[in-house]
Structure formats: structure tokens, C-alpha cells
Amino acid sequence: MPKPAAPQYRTMNWPEYNAALKRRGSLEIWFDPQMHWLSKPCGRPGRPMRFSDSAIELCLTLKSLFNLPLRQVTGLVASLIKLAGLDWPVPDYTTLCRRQKTLMVELGGRPSSGGLRLLVDSTGIKMTGEGEWKTRKHGVSYRRQWRKAHLGIDAATLDIRAIEVTTNAVGDAPTLPNLLAQIPQDEQILSVGETALTIPGRAMLPLPNVVPMRSFRSVATGNHGRKTAPA
After folding, report:
1. What is the C-alpha to C-alpha distance for residues 59 and 70, in angstroms, rounded to an integer?
2. 180 located within any domain
């Protein structure tokens, strides 16, 4: 049977195409002068931290975005602050290395207007292991180690509202109380479902042991005052 010819595409909207390619290389980074760059006094004994969590999070975000070592990140942040006309100090690379281990990152998702419909799914992250080419050519020398990232996604805006990292043996149902605890207390949750991104047309499936929502949340999270949809 002859192989079908591959379809050929021709670009007709060259002005829009060129403008889209230019936007791919554009870079806009701005600093809010009102942000708390330095850490506030915590009132605890000992030397307080100099830089706030927002400053450390910004530096680590640029590190992950441009795949830079910590020393180069400090130089990049110093240049950006200078271009912005601010006189802020820059965290040292040793400070970034120490603070990134205990940094609590806030996702800051947009609150839902008519109630939150939370979709729960998980994906695997390979921590250690050999490459695919080496495995195919020479076999596996040692087992791969995986971690599982459980995500809570807003069905309306597709914003990540909650995240929990566990071992590969933990399913979605045991981590559901920790995901629900990351949602603000004053936000109404209408439903919790499972999303399947690989199956077209399958948007939500009810998770077991989730209904009724009110009784589950009061038992799982221990918060009886949570605002929920009527069961």
C-alpha cells in the first residue's frame, strides 16, 4: 500500500507571522516599587532574614526560566534592578541556595466568581535514571526513581490552585485533603473531579469517597466552618 503524501502548508499571512515571531523574543520584566523586597521583622529571637520570600522567589524563577546557575542569577537580578532605577540589594548566591530548600511558594490563582470546580490529576517526574538512548542500546543499569506531582486545577480558568508532591506509590485520593487545604477558606467549592487530558471529550469524572462534599471536607480537613456547596 503506497504511503500517503504528507500535507504541505504555505504561509499566507506573512505580516502576522513575522509579528508573532518577533513577540517570541520579546522580554518584559518589571518590578513593583511597592513590593516588600526586604523581610519584615518577625519578632522571634535570633537574626532575622534579610530578604523576603517574594525576592527569593523572583530570583529562583529567573533561574529556572533561563536555566542559569545561582551566581549568574545574582548578576541578572542586579542588572534588572539597575535598569528599573531601584536601589534594592541583591541576594547572594549562598542565600539563594539556603533559602530555596525551605521556600513556601504561593500559587496565587485567580479566585472563582461563581464557585470553584476543582479538577485533580497527577503526573510523574523522573528524579534519577538513565537516558532513553542508553536504555535502548545497552539496557537498564539501575532503576529509575519517580516523584508524583498532584495538581488541583480550576476547570474554568485552568489555573493551578493546589499542588502536592509525593512518592510514586501515592494516589490522588489520599492527597485530596492536602489539596483542598490550599484553597482559601472563603472560596466556595462546587465540585471535585478527575481530569483525563489524554482522552478527548472526557472532562470530569467523580472521584470516589468525595460526595457529599460537606461531610468529606469536615472529616478530611477537620474544618467544620468551610464554605461549601450544598450536598
Report:
1. 9
2. yes
